[in-house]
Each structure stands twice: as structure tokens, then as C-alpha cells.
TrEMBL record:
Uppermost EC category: transferase
Gene expressing this chain: aroA
Designated name of the protein: 3-phosphoshikimate 1-carboxyvinyltransferase
Family: Belongs to the EPSP synthase family.
Chain residues that bind phosphoenolpyruvate: 22, 94, 122, 169, 346, 391
SUPFAM superfamilies, A to Z: EPT/RTPC-like
Predominant location: cytoplasm
Subcellular location(s) of the protein: Cytoplasm
UniProt keyword Magnesium present: no
Reaction catalysis annotation: 3-phosphoshikimate + phosphoenolpyruvate = 5-O-(1-carboxyvinyl)-3-phosphoshikimate + phosphate
Domain Enolpyruvate transferase: start-end pairs: 11-426
Length: 431
């Protein structure tokens, strides 16, 4: 599907409630399925990725009903899951795949996983190796890729390890396995990654101890059903926050955005770059804090992004690169080699697509160097490509707003993975 993008926007105004957080939506189904009782989730993100997690649990016999943005789950516990009729199609969803590998690693029946072309190229050994060390039996293609099968397994041993990649997906998979092990596990992170699993585990009545970067997890299976609203996804709000910053004469309120401090790195980067925004109406009484982010247009200056901050902005780096093309000076992004194993190699896809529009970007094995500011317009092509990657497609739609020339986005349907209503939301706030 091709999509003609809005170019040369005059301003963005109004209030937008962005869709529910993708990471929290996935986890809400998982904990809802494990808990005793009926879990009710409001503002659930109905995107392709989250539907995969929902469908996976339905295939394992968990009663789940949908009414608008509300999902109701009747929990069955680890012990109540049933053998699926066929292998699970996880589409494009790395989060479903990795977390479910851990969650399903001790079941009295085998479970097959497969996915789309992009997911089938993403590394799974990072989860399979530590889970195998715990006793899981996973047979993957070339020991690393989908399609794979989780074989019948009745015991998991606890582990004490430093997780070799800073990844919330790997950490979460190991937490789900540790809950089912026959002893206490200790997991140490290389850097703090998003902590939604830990928070939700406690919310559902579980116990997890955190000391610095080390988590201690005892075996446990008694979780209590919950009712809550998923906050807006900071990673989705980020597209509009940057659009309102870069398109002159804008002022936009992004309502009830998740403000978990393992997810707000993008706001810190924007702030260093000189962006003009404020946060209001913060609700920090809930497990996941949220609030309104009000953004006014402003000029940006270059910054550097590296080290421990990378995990906190990992999904927003394509947007930081776009911001840097409009900022005065040289922006350098380092320590971000993980970008090469996302839905696409995001170092290459960002550089390839933004260069078409005149951006000056050098790539490095672990990041990018961006020289700004450069005006954006169709220089080598007026067709930009999502490469089947939702965050690349969405970033390009924001780039188009600054472009003097009309652009067409190819493979625009990729955005359905995290933000199916993006173009409708954009129309609502454009002047
Ligand atoms: C996610 C963790 C991140 C992120 C992904 C969602 C999660 O991946 O990129 O979009 O929900 O745990 P890694 O933890 O593998 O970096």
C-alpha cells in the first residue's frame, strides 16, 4: 500500500490522546492470563503486534473478549494453558516471540512459533541460550531463528546471570521462566531497560526484588486479576512531539502519555536539543505514571546520545536522527548497534531514507553522525519506503511534514504494527 504524505505542514494544534502503550498492552494479556480471576484492561493497543499476543493466548485456551478498547481476560494460570491446535503466527512481533518463549518454556505440550520475513531474521539465541541453561528445550532454525518449537518440558532450574544484552525482552523472558523455576534466580542487567514486566508482576500481587541492576525472583504462580487503563505510548507520542517541535507555529497537547522513567529518554534528548515542552497533570499514584505533554515549536541544536541512555531511547532513535537533521551542529549517536537487529537494520534504513530527502548522515557500526540543519525535500526520490518497519514509516511521515515536496510512502501498512490510527490522528491536529 502506498500513501501520499502531507507535505509542508503549516502547524499542529489541539489535543491528542495517543494509543495505549505497546509494551504494557502485551504484558497485560500475559499477566491477565496467568492471574486468578477476571482482568479488565482499558485503552488496550489494538495493533497488529498486540493482537498476536492476544491470539496466542486464545489459541492456548484462555478466554479473552474484546469490547472497543477494553479487553477482558479470564485467567487460567501457568498450569491451565492448553495445547494449541497449530503453530502460533507471531507476525512481526519480537516482543510476543521473546516474552512467550520464557512464559511457555515449561509446558506439558510442544508449541510452535513462526513469523513474517522480518521476524524470521531476528536473533532469538539471546533468549534461547539462557532459557536452555535453565532447562528449556527449544529447537530453532539454525539454533537462532523462527520457525521454532518449544518442546514439552517439566522442570526449569533457577539461574544467576548477567544478561549479555541490554534488552527488556530478554530480561522479561527470563523473569517469566524464573517464576516457574525450582529455586531463586538472580538476573543482572548491563543497563536499566524498560521495567514494565517488573512493575506489572508486583501489580498482579507477585514479588520481585530489585537491587541496583540485579533482580531476585522466587518461584511463584499465584497472581491476582487487575483492572487498569494502559497509559498512552511514549514511543507513539514521540512522533507527534517531534512533529510539533519541528513544524513552525505548532502547539499540541499529548494527553495521558506514559511517563515511566525507563521510557522518557526521548524527552530528555529533546530537552537537551532545546525543545520547548512541559509536562502537566501528572498521575504518579498508578503503577505506571502518566501525564500530558504540551509541545510548542522551537529551533533545535545538536546533541550526543550514547551509553546507558541508549536503552531508554532505543525505539526513538529514528526520530532523534530526524530531529538531528533539523538541528544546528553535529549530532552523534553511539553504542546503538542493537538498532541493526530491530524490525529492520534501523541504522541503514534511517540513513537510506533520510538521505533521499537531502539529509547528511554518516553511519557507524554502532550509530550515526548527523550534520544539521538541512532542509528536507525530494532530492534523489519522492518515494520513501518504510522497508516494512513501522517506526521507519512513522518517522518518514513526520519528515514529510517538513518537506517542501510531496512524498509518497511505500509499504505504508507497516505502521499498523504499533500505530494503526496514525494518519487519522494526524489529520485531527493539522491546521
Ligand atoms: C520492548 C523492548 C525493546 C523495544 C521493543 C519493545 C518490550 O526491545 O525495542 O519495541 O516491550 O520489552 P529490546 O528490549 O529487545 O531492546
Amino acid at each position: 500500500m502506498d500513501k501520499v504524505l502531507v507535505a509542508a505542514a503549516r502547524g499542529l494544534h489541539g489535543t491528542l490522546t495517543v494509543p495505549g502503550d505497546k509494551s504494557i498492552s502485551h504484558r497485560s494479556i500475559m499477566f491477565g492470563a496467568l492471574a486468578k480471576g477476571t482482568t479488565i484492561i482499558d485503552h488496550f493497543l489494538f495493533s497488529d503486534d498486540c493482537r498476536r499476543t492476544l491470539a496466542a493466548f486464545q489459541a492456548l485456551g484462555v478466554p479473552i473478549t474484546v469490547d472497543g478498547e477494553r479487553v477482558t481476560i479470564t485467567g487460567v494460570g501457568f498450569a491451565g494453558l492448553k495445547a494449541p491446535q497449530q503453530a502460533l503466527d507471531l507476525g512481526n512481533s519480537g516482543t510476543s516471540t521473546r516474552l512467550l518463549l520464557g512464559l511457555f518454556s515449561k509446558q506439558p505440550f510442544p508449541i510452535g512459533f513462526f513469523g513474517d520475513a522480518s521476524l524470521s531474521k531476528r536473533p532469538m539465541k539471546r533468549v534461547i541460550a539462557p532459557l536452555s541453561q535453565m532447562g528449556a528445550k527449544i529447537q530453532a532454525t539454525d539454533t537462532d531463528f523462527l520457525p521454532l518449537t518449544i518442546a514439552t518440558n517439566t522442570t526449569l532450574q533457577p539461574v544467576e546471570m548477567t544478561i549479555p544484552v541490554a534488552s527488556a525482552q530478554v530480561k522479561s523472558a527470563l523473569i517469566f521462566a524464573a517464576l516457574q523455576a525450582n529455586g531463586t534466580s538472580k538476573l543482572t542487567e548491563l543497563a536499566q531497560t524498560r521495567d514494565h514486566t517488573e512493575r506489572m508482576l508486583r501489580q498482579f500481587g507477585g514479588e520481585i526484588d530489585k537491587n541496583g541492576l540485579t533482580l531476585t525472583i522466587k518461584p511463584q504462580s499465584q497472581f491476582v486479576a487487575q483492572k487498569f487503563r494502559v497509559p498512552g505510548d511514549m514511543s507513539s507520542a514521540a512522533f507527534f512531539a517531534l512533529a510539533a517541535t519541528l513544524v513552525p507555529n505548532s502547539q499540541l497537547r499529548l494527553a495521558q502519555v506514559g511517563l515511566n522513567n525507563t521510557r522518557t529518554g526521548f524527552l530528555d534528548v529533546l530537552s537537551r536539543m532545546g525543545a520547548d515542552f512541559r509536562v502537566e497533570d501528572v498521575d504518579s499514584k498508578t503503577v505506571e505514571a502518566s501525564g500530558d505533554v504540551i509541545v510548542t515549536s522551537s529551533k533545535l541544536k545538536a546533541t550526543t546520545v550514547h551509553g546507558a541512555e541508549i536503552a531508554n531511547v532505543i525505539d526513538e532513535i529514528p526520530l532523534i536522527a530526524l530531529a538531528a537533521t533539523q538541528a544546528e551542529g553535529v549530532t552523534e549517536i553511539s553504542d546503538a548497534a542493537e538498532l541493526r537487529v530491530k524490525e529492520t537494520d534501523r541504522i541503514e534504513t534511517v540513513a537510506t531514507e533520510l538521505r533521499k530527502l537531502g539529509a547528511n548522515i554518516e553511519t557507524k557500526p554502532d550509530g550515526m553522525i548527523i550534520h544539521g540543519p538541512t532542509p528536507l525535500r525530494a532530492v534523489t526520490s519522492d518515494r520513501v519506503d518504510s522497508h516494512g518497519d513501522h517506526r521507519i514509516g512513522l518517522m518518514l511521515a513526520v519528515a514529510a511534514l517538513l518537506s517542501k515536496s510531496q512524498l509518497t510512502l511505500t509499504d505504508a501498512a507497516a505502521i499498523n504494527v504499533s500505530y494503526p490510527n496514525f494518519f487519522t490522528d494526524l489529520e485531527q491536529v493539522l491546521d
